[in-house]
Amino acid sequence: MGKTVKVVVTGATGQVAYALLPRIASGGMFGPDTEVDLRLWDIPPMIDKAKGVIMELEDGAYPLLARVTASADRAETHGDIDWALLVGSVPRGPGMERGDLIRKNGPIFLEEGRAIARHGGRDVRVVVVGNPCNTNCLIAREAAGPSIPDDRWTALTRLDQNRARALLAAKAGARMRDVKRLAIWGNHSATLYPDFTNAVVGGRKAAAAVDRAWLETEFIALVQQRGAAVIAARGVSSAFSAAQAVVDHVRSLLTPTPADDWASVAVVSDGGYGVPKGLVSSFPVRVAGDGWWEVVQGVELDAFARGKVDATVAELVREREMVQDLIAGAAAR
Ligand code: LMR
To answer: Which candidate, 230, 86, 96, places its Cα nearest to that of 162?
Structure first.
């Protein structure tokens, strides 16, 4: 048995966490050789419910679950953590955009950033799931200050990648595993760009496998609006598909990326690809054998793709402006 990984899941009594926690406990996220010390964080009124979640985790008799606790005190749950999976936030309802939540959820991520800096482990890694996840990640990163480097902060666009992959495979009559290098760029929002121009289906460029006109119009719109479509149909936002994407996101960050593929991860921009430094934007990412990621370099974006990337990045710039008052001096307080 390898090491024990300490993981906090916030919003631990919510729908996404309910689908995510058993996956973590059963080894689906950190593998069959890693025990998990699982900390459930939620707001005080939810702690009794969290005790029920703990009972269910105990009743699963998961061999890899070394410990599970719950608290509304981040000093208890975030102590020495290796991973922070930040799910806790107000979800959007029908007719809303994720960005509409920015002023409501932003302050939660100020608190998270500060708590992670104060209590987290030396190599803590963060995954922001609560929406709008890119800008919430930016807020948490700013609030944490310089003690935690940029490369520890990520936000979830794997759900969009999974959606895009499934839609493209269905259209092409291909298997899911035949769709490669289908990267999401930019924001997890209605402006996100699933870059079909570099995607490969069964060894061929996507535009050779399906009609480019469909890719430029319907495909992009379907991926951009998939979260809203789930909400319209279910009345509530996605849960187990989001949980699956969190598992995939973390696994992709921990395992070498196959040579013929990329993973979509929203990370702190270093200014590459014309994305302003400091924005949390989705890029194609590769992980080498040592478990640390790098943005794939040299990806060619044609005029169509460039226009789409610029549009989604412009939205991230606007979101950052909307929370400027929150992040100004956040780390100092
Ligand atoms: C999703 O994409 O399903 C989630 O981000 C939830 C939402 O608000 O769409």
So the answer is: 230
Q: pLDDT tens-digit profile of 277-307?
A: 999 999 999 999 777 999 999 999 999 999 9
Cα of 11 vs centre of ligand 1, distance in Å, is 15
Distances (CA, A) of 253 to 110, 227, 248, 273, 294: 24, 24, 9, 21, 10
d(CA 174, CA 109): 40
Residue nearest to atom 7 of ligand 1 (CA): 227
* CA 48 – ligand 1 centroid, Å: 27
Tell how far the Cα of 243 is from the centroid of ligand 1, in angstroms: 11
Task: Round to whole Å and give the CA distance between 42 and 45.
Answer: 8
Ligand 1 pocket check for 230: Cβ under 6 Å: yes
| Whether residue 237 has its Cβ less than 6 Å from ligand 1 | yes
CATH of domain 158-319: 3.90.110.10
What per-residue confidence (pLDDT) applies to 331?
Answer: 66
Side by side, the strands of the sheet bearing 293-295 are 65-71, 35-41, 4-10, 83-86, 125-128, 153-155, 263-268, 280-287, 293-295
Active centre residues (catalytic) = 188
Tokens of 175: 């298997």
* pLDDT tens-digit series, residues 92-103: 999 999 999 999
C-alpha 145 – ligand 1 centre gap (Å): 28
Ligand 1 pocket, residue 92 CB under 6 Å: yes
| 233 CB neighbour count, 10 Å cutoff | 9
**3-155 in CATH: which number?**
3.40.50.720
Is the shortest distance between the CB of 163 and ligand 1 below 6 Å? no
Domain ranges of the chain: 3-155, 158-319
- Is the pTM higher than 0.85? yes
Residues forming beta bridges with residue 153, ordered by sequence position: 126
227 lines ligand 1 (CB under 6 A): yes
Is-same-fold flag (3-155; 158-319)?
no
